[in-house]
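To whoever is on call:

I kicked off a structure prediction for a single chain this morning and the downstream step that reads the tokens threw a length-mismatch warning. I double-checked the sequence; it's 416 residues and nothing unusual in it as far as I can see. Pasting both halves so you can look.
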Amino acid sequence: MKKVFTPKLVIMLLMATAILLQANFSFAQEENDNDPRTWKYFRINARATDDSIFLKLQEELLIDPLLESYALTVNVLDPNPINQTVVIGDETSPDALRYSWSQLSKSVQDGLLNWTGSNKENLNKRKLNYGSVFLDAIKKIRIKELIAPPQKKREIVSTTAYINPYLQAFGGDPLGIPIKRGFGFSFYLGTPYTGPLETDKIGANFHLLGAKVGVSTRIKEFVMKHQAGTTQSESESTFMKYNNVFTPKLGLEASYVIPFGNFFEVGYYTVLDSGDYDPPLQIRVEGDTTFMPNNIVSNGSYFNWEFRYPFRTFGSTRAKIYVARYMGETHIGFIGREMRLAGSVFDVRINATLAGTRNFQLLFETMIADIAEGFGQTAFAFGPSIRITKGPSGSMGVVTAMLNMRLKIGDFYDEK
């Protein structure tokens, strides 16, 4: 018997097909906030060293010079390819570089859509709740990126450990500029363990195959305040007037990174010229005849060392935890540069100075780097630097609360 397709049967088949197609389309468009591979509108704080696709993308879009780090926004929500875009820089800025999604090869498109790093942020509108303030950033943490091994060989080699593209206004690791990898120079304002207006020390070093030798001097205005020229109101104020480090007019410093990796450095510091004696302003302890402590380095020599473990956290370019002995004081701390989380790029520095010459002190510093576009996204960073220690009354309090900043001079060489 021959089957005949009636108009009613044709209509029913068409309706069923439409329903199935609609269901499949809806499924394809469904996003899961916990699965970055399903996102259609997202931002990536990209770094060329993260994956080759972030270099290949720039080559395909004819970006010259190539950027080491940049913000990338992808919007493929619209099924019409004409409206699918890629933006380099701040999407809201008229100066941002805008391209069509179709300008990218299939391999780069797939790489971006399937990227699951913590530096990927979903920009599609979603419902917020009372817990979003606390939980959104935590949800974006990827366990594999919370703690990861070093990314560049320079971070674990003793002869190149000094290389550091960051110049910080106060404290932190010295700026290390290589002439040829194991041979170069470094410059610093403060010590690796101090914050703003905590010490007057500045200096420069020469580096050769893991060894360094350098000289230091002082800029008195970097510490508040010396006794000479102090007004009555300044004498009565205790803010920034104790728990500081005062250094001599001229000092000699040398150190050596043990050649079995970048984890242990030993050093020596000696006073060459104490200079004119200009004592720091003294703050009397309340109810006592003693004064608040300072570390006054005017003569003698010191044996220094630092045990550190370099690693990556939240995709940082330079991070470490350390225990150190420096100029008669013991320090424990953590430094992380260009960490990426919840759409932000930021630095963190935490240093605890154990009680000894000075009172116990905790330095906490965070600087936001995601300010400008392109290379400028990580070229400079600003943020608060706070020192907490025991005050004249005997209770813990803030002795310094200031802005600190750092500049990224460049990326000096890449390992092949």
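Update from on-call: the warning came from a stale cache, not from the record. Cleared it. Sanity check on the structure: Residues 20-28 have pLDDT under 50 and may be disordered.
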